[in-house]
Design goal:
Strand order of the largest sheet: 2-5-1-6
Helix content: 25-40%
CATH topology: Alpha-Beta Plaits
Mean pLDDT: 80
Low-confidence stretches: 49-55, 57-61
Structural class: alpha+beta
CATH class: Alpha Beta
Largest sheet: 4 strands, antiparallel
Order of helices and strands: EHEEEHEHE
Length: about 100
């Protein structure tokens, strides 16, 4: 059973369902899923640089930032469909 990526709680089995490349989209994804009563955790691949949400790997490597979206496993399919509708091509599922 995968624990919550933020608090390590094992109350639910969590899974990373995909990612977005910018802070604005990650905030929108989180708010969208929360409004649908789906618990969500957004994690960055590297540390944040202040409130701007830029990540250190983005500054030094020139690569796009990636914010991973995790939800309870039971909500994964629904959450991924919701984010595809809400974010369009900004939403990248785990397999892509």
């Amino acid at each position: 059973m995968a624990s919550c990526p933020e608090c390590n709680s094992t109350d639910q089995d969590w899974t990373m369902i995909g990612y977005v490349s910018d802070k604005f989209s990650s905030d929108f994804a989180k708010e969208t899923l929360m409004s649908c009563d789906i618990p969500v955790v957004v994690m960055s691949h590297a540390g944040f640089l202040g409130d701007a949400g830029m990540m250190l790997n983005q500054i030094y490597s020139g690569e796009a930032a990636a914010f991973e979206i995790s939800v309870p496993k039971d909500d994964a399919d629904e959450a991924s469909e919701i984010l595809l509708l809400a974010l369009g091509d900004k939403w990248q599922t785990k397999g892509k």
